[in-house]
Write a structure and sequence with these properties.
The strands form 2 sheets. A 6-stranded mixed sheet has the order 1-12-2-3-4-5. Strands 6-7-8-9-11-10 form a 6-stranded mixed sheet. The longest helix has about 40 residues. Helix 6 links the parallel strand 3 and strand 4. The chain is elongated and about 80 Å long. The protein folds into 2 domains: about 140 residues, no CATH class; about 240 residues, 4-Layer Sandwich (Purple Acid Phosphatase, chain A, domain 2). The chain contains 11 helices and 12 strands. By secondary structure, the chain is of the alpha/beta class.
């Protein structure tokens, strides 16, 4: 609880600064006439307060219809504010370059009327583009989740397994606004329609306790695959009661791989599937923490090895230990462009296919969303991975 209030305090300070910046550029500098100036000012203050207030309210009330109705507009505004800040900062950068060029060229200072005209035109463009980005990203996040098919050659995969499939989802984030039982039922139906050999869930499945989300996640029991359904923890499981979730998922027929390895297939026509706890799990729950060495104890290096690891940065160790393919999530593909470029400060890969030495890595955009129910240039996905034998 103390950690939550510290987070809430820091977030409130950051949000206050962001909203002041938007007010200064879009209301003060454009010199909106009354009463629009007052309306815009009050609206920005209310919207700024709504974000931490609704997060606090939802934490107190849990997942109820009322808390969801209150949270929805606040989270949409959070995404819209992000777009507005990016656009406003971009316009300010252009203005700075023009100003600097004028100084170098010795141009005369801009008269007040022209400055006001430019501020109003810029403000109008920012508002229009911000609303357009909001509409497009809402449509992407809340629309039908696409199935993305990817064929990956693996050098140690037995020829008899050429064409074997993995249906991979990650970052489902059940408990977020609009991601309810009916939505998950459709995800399960789409996965089952693929008739996969393996279903893999790459962490961040939930945002809430077992008690809150038991009914919502029940459709997971209907997942069907030839060789089973597997799950590894993500960081959000540790905010929601990882031990309880690991136990509950087992009752739904989902096997939790906690620094463990299993054989997929029959006899020589098989490969190894390993899974590790989230990269940051150590200290967040008793006995939890990523331990790839434990997962690979007794591993035969001549066998193909696929690793489930929530965070892409696990690939550095994976590459040193002979993993053929790592499947990860966590990044959401950036979720809201251009946020993905900041994610690179923490993760070596943000979305799509990459490679570290001899280890291939695929990072899913994720299936749900977190925070704003919005996605821009990072469509949600169910990934059908077709494994190909390099020897076939």
């Amino acid at each position: 609880m103390t950690r939550f209030f510290i987070f809430l305090g820091v977030a409130t300070l950051i949000l206050g600064g962001i909203h002041y910046y938007l007010w200064a550029r879009l209301v003060r500098d454009t010199v909106l006439p009354q009463p629009w100036r007052m309306v815009a000012t009050v609206a920005i203050v209310v919207l700024a307060v709504s974000i931490p207030a609704t997060m606090f309210l939802r934490r107190g009330l849990g997942e109820t219809t009322f808390s969801e109705l209150v949270l929805w507009p606040a989270m949409v505004w959070l995404g819209t504010a992000f777009f507005l800040v990016v656009l406003t900062a971009s316009v300010d950068l252009v203005r700075l370059v023009v100003w600097a060029a004028g100084k170098v060229a010795g141009a005369s200072p801009m008269d007040p009327e022209r400055r006001l005209f430019i501020a109003r035109v810029g403000g109008g463009i920012i508002a229009a583009l911000g609303l357009a980005a909001t509409g497009a990203s809402l449509r992407t996040a809340l629309g039908r989740v696409r199935v993305k098919t990817l064929e990956l050659p693996l050098r140690r995969l037995p020829p008899a397994l050429d064409g074997t499939t993995i249906a991979f989802i990650s970052d489902v984030h059940m408990g977020q606004a609009a991601l309810g039982r009916a939505w998950l039922e459709q995800i399960v139906a789409d996965i089952n329609a693929l008739a996969p050999d393996v279903v893999a869930i790459g962490g961040d499945l939930v945002d809430g306790s077992v008690e809150e989300l038991r009914h919502a996640v029940a459709p997971l029991a209907d997942l069907r695959s030839r060789h089973g359904v597997y799950f590894v923890t993500g960081n959000h499981e540790y905010y929601s009661g990882a031990r309880e979730w690991c136990a509950h998922l087992q009752t739904l027929g989902v096997r939790v791989l906690r620094n463990q390895r299993v054989s997929i297939g029959d006899g020589a026509a098989s490969y190894d599937l390993a899974g590790v706890d989230d990269y940051n799990a150590s200290g967040m729950a008793p006995g939890h923490g990523a331990d790839l060495a434990a997962a690979l104890e007794g591993y035969d290096p001549s066998r193909e090895l696929v690793l489930l690891a929530h965070q892409p940065r696990a690939v550095f160790e994976a590459a040193e230990r002979g993993v053929g393919l790592q499947l990860s999530g966590h990044t959401h593909g950036g979720q809201l462009w251009p946020w993905r470029y900041l994610v690179y400060l923490q993760q070596p890969f943000v979305g799509g296919l990459g490679r570290r030495k001899d280890t291939q890595i695929y990072v899913s955009n994720g299936t749900g969303f977190w925070g704003p129910p919005m996605r821009l240039f990072a469509a949600p996905e169910i990934t059908k991975i077709v494994l190909r034998s390099a020897a076939a």
